[in-house]
Amino acid sequence: MTEQIVQLQGITKEFIDGGVSHRVLDRLDLLLTQGDTIALTGASGSGKSTLLNLIAGFERPDAGSLSLLSEITTSWSDNLWSHFRRVSLGVVFQQFNLLTPLNVEDNIAFPLRLNGLDWNSWCDHLVDSLGLRPLLKRHVETLSGGQQQRVAIARALAHKPRLLLADEPTGNLDQLASLEVMKLLCELAAEQDTSIIMVTHSMECAQFMQRRWHLNNGQIHE
Ligand SMILES: Nc1ncnc2c1ncn2[C@@H]1O[C@H](COP(=O)(O)OP(=O)(O)OP(=O)(O)O)[C@@H](O)[C@H]1O
């Protein structure tokens, strides 16, 4: 049976700005099942990052219910949210957000250590597929943007998460590096049936995903 990875029902999120309430997500419904890959588009300020932050548990909805891996999260404690993020979630950011005191190998091993896991054949496969083998002992701040984003992808997938959230993962890369990063990201995620929600402003990058969600006026249009 295909598993439900993310389900939002009637999700509303408002922020107070200058004493005025501003509704960013408006009774939003959506369903993401195992292996689904989504390009999330929408104008600046339409709520894309807010949606990712809700799914990662960094924001709480004002109304509605959010289920992750078929469990309703409404009563999850901070510990359960941390467990979900550590075990089931991988994240890739525009700014790479690598651990700069560490080398490439230690960055990739970081989520494994958090989960009490050792380096394994999947990590070797990630490293080889992403062309990182010659760079393993290099400090990440000495790498190019494209190389750093490939490390970020390996780190995000090392613990075989069920869901990958990517916020403009190619926003800092030139066109050639963007396309290469997108291709590798999709291929490697597909190998573990990892679902992806990727925020992008690039139609070229959106083409790599199976589905499109466009966020407008607090609603998703597919
Ligand atoms: N913590 C917050 N407090 C107040 N307002 C917020 C907060 N977070 C987001 N907002 C507001 O919510 C709206 C949506 O912001 P969000 O960052 O989700 O948009 P976005 O679609 O990701 O934009 P961009 O493409 O520019 O990154 C914006 O008007 C923003 O100012």
From TrEMBL:
Keyword Transport: yes
SUPFAM superfamilies, A to Z: P-loop containing nucleoside triphosphate hydrolases
NAD listed as a keyword: no
Cross-referenced InterPro entries: AAA+_ATPase, ABC_transporter-like_ATP-bd, ABC_transporter-like_CS, ABC_transpr_LolD-like, MacB-like_ATP-bd, P-loop_NTPase
This protein's UniProt keywords: ATP-binding, Nucleotide-binding, Transport
Top-rank taxon, per record: Bacteria
MF terms in GO: ATP binding; ATP hydrolysis activity; transmembrane transporter activity
Protein name, UniProt field: ABC transporter, ATP-binding protein
Domain ABC transporter: 6-222
A single GO cellular-component term on record: plasma membrane
PANTHER family documented for this protein: IMPORT ATP-BINDING PROTEIN, TRANSPORTER, PUTATIVE-RELATED
